[in-house]
Amino acid sequence: MILLLGYGISNKSVEKILIKKKIQYKIFDDVIHDICEDILKDVDLIIRSPGISISHPLLMLGYEKKIHIISEIE
């Protein structure tokens, strides 16, 4: 499962690709959601929007859980 971290212009474009390729994903955005460890359940890849700090608490949890993290540019 892929987690789109941040739901700005760049990850909205990534979402279109994921839908086209029928790849399962979920979205996390600080504006809408509260941070909790449950959001990372079944996640094996996090795609981070450029505006998300590398020290974001959800990324820190991802690093601890050894989840692969990339930016949408990658």
Could you walk me through the main structural features you see in this protein, from its secondary elements to its overall organization?
The protein has a 4-stranded parallel sheet, with helices on both faces. α1 (9-20) links the parallel β1 (2-5) and β2. By secondary structure, the protein is of the alpha/beta class. The longest helix is centred in the N-terminal third of the chain and has 12 residues, at 9-20. It has 2 helices and 4 strands, in the order βαββαβ. It has helices spanning 9-20, 57-64, and strands at 2-5, 25-28, 45-48, 68-71. Helices cover 27% and strands 22% of the residues. The model has no long low-confidence stretch (mean pLDDT 88). The protein is globular.
Give me some keywords for this one.
single chain; 74 residues; alpha/beta; 4-stranded parallel β-sheet
Strand content: 15-25%
- The residue-averaged pLDDT reads 88
Element string (H = helix, E = strand)? EHEEHE
Counted beta strands: 4
Strand order of the largest sheet: 2-1-3-4
The number of helical elements comes to 2
The helix content, as a percent range, equals 25-40%
- Global shape: globular
* Class by alpha and beta content: alpha/beta
C-alpha end-to-end distance? 17 Å
Specify the biggest β-sheet.
4 strands, parallel
